[in-house]
Amino acid sequence: MKNLKNLQLIILAVITVSITSCNKGSKNGSSLTGWSDKDMATAGFSTNKKYKGQKAPPGMVLIEGGTFTMGHVQDDVMYDWNTTPVKMQVRSFFLDETEVTNSEYLFYLEWTKKVFPKSNDNYEHIYDAAVPDTLVWRDVLGFNELLTENYLRHPSYANYPVVGVNWVQANQYCKWRGDRVNEKALMDKGVLKNLFALDSVEVEGANHFSTKSYLANPYNMFDGDSTIYKKGLPQIKKRKKGAAKPAKGSFTGRHVKISDGILSPGFRLPTEAEWEYAAKALVENREYNNIRGRKKFAWNGKYARRADRRYRGDQLANYKQGKGDYSGVAGWSSDGADITIAVKSYKPNAFGLYDMSGNVAEWVADVYRPIIDSEANDFNYYRGNVFNKTLIDNEGKVVFVDYNNMAFDTLDNGRIVPKDLPGEIKYIPVTKTDAFMRNNYEKSYNIDYHDGDLASTQNYAANDDDDEMAAKPRMYNSPIIPKEIGESGLVKQMYDKQNRTTLVSDKSRVIKGGSWRDRQYWLDPAQRRFLPEYMGANYIGFRCATDKLGAMTPKRRKAHHDKKIK
């Protein structure tokens, strides 16, 4: 018995030592290989144990994801049945606390004009493609001509939401903004110099910072000019004996990788589900894990006017009160504005977002369809996916956009816009070969998936390919703008002469929220409208979003089963 007891003690000691060793290895290195962090860093492998979580990008707030009822939860006086309630899950994401303002958009225009000057024929149409349609303020029976000249650029409207921006322009701005945020992040980390402050380089055309181009090859930018970089991130690897000492100010560290957690994900427009979830802000109606009551607006309660004694009767948002009444009587304005108003003029909702009801309606990413197909997907729903891939040349290298392969598109209203800009990575649609034997998608173009494509027609079992389907009658018989190239090379503008049955098309994008010229009915975040992606309006603006990576929230509530049972 004594020997057996000693044997048990020895086994217990061995197990204790093993567990201690494993715990030590998991803290100081790779528990699966035994390599320490120092070993990996010295050998040039990625290691990042100092990451403290994703920070909110400038001007954005964290929207913690969750489940909610998307669509109408109250009256539907229009009876169009396009907002039938569906249960939906939304992932956590970051969203601008306000709409993009005129001053912020002017920075984008000035940057575009500086980097792609109109005096250079290679950059023709790039700047003009970014300028909002200021003529949206005109009315054949109204006098608003001064707004067409001043609303965008005059300092009186600097903090007002930008309008006249179409969906295509809004997307381009979001993409541009993501690059500028990451460019500033690299400058703050001492990796990248202030490019516009350098005398040795010219920030023009392909010579500008692009996040994806930087990650693909940092030395592809500026024709391989390494003087745009500082010391870079520190690395443990020591200089070999006898090697020459690097010149003062030369790049001696390493470049930033995705694994460093320094660069923000790309910016984009929020999806319809994300926007509606953020606008409703049901978090303030939460009682434990249940939602109590219903919300008709971005704020709590069923009325659109203030109830407190001092400001009783004042509107809680900027919207049209009635026929010919946009602001109330002189000396007692109920919303403080006849058109739009400066952002943050009203209190934010429970998520900290301003003007989610009123001021301007907003573009979201989705292509419009009358029905939200929750049967197909109830997790982070979005209609509008077109899957692309990086273009690789015959030598196996990533292809970057230049003046030879730059492509333009002529929108249905005649505006010419660039599909991509010089200096960026070239993307092409994925092929059926790329999607072969996949169980999550079969092709690149999925905008009309199960609602306009072959699978949603009575000939769903046919073997027709997409090219043959394009020549057949479409499920959504929306107008088609014919395009003819004249002798001068310009596109002739023509109207569709066919009889059409609907305005819905694959270019119809969803608009959410009410505006300064809408009645109270449209302030409900569940309401949805649509407009062609190439059109702007004086009541439509936008805000940007980006993904939350990792945990849903930095502060996780402990579940009941995590608590110790006494």
Description:
The chain has 566 residues and is α+β, with helices and mostly antiparallel strands. Among the domains are: 10-42; 386-446, no CATH class. The protein has nine helices and 19 strands. It has helices spanning 2-28, 37-42, 102-115, 126-130, 145-150, 167-188, 211-216, 272-280, 466-470, and strands at residues 60-63, 66-70, 86-90, 93-96, 286-287, 290-291, 328-329, 332-333, 361-367, 388-390, 408-410, 416-418, 427-429, 483-485, 491-493, 508-512, 528-532, 540-541, 545-547. The two termini are 36 Å apart. The relative contact order is 0.15.
Approximately how much helix is present in the residues?
A: 10-25%
| Beta-strand percentage range | 5-15%
Name the shape in a single word: globular
Structural class: alpha+beta
Instruction: Report the C-alpha radius of gyration, rounded.
Output: 28 Å
Q: How many strands, which pairing sense, and closed or not: the largest β-sheet?
A: 4 strands, mixed
Quantity of strands, as a count: 19
Averaging pLDDT over every residue, what do you get? 86
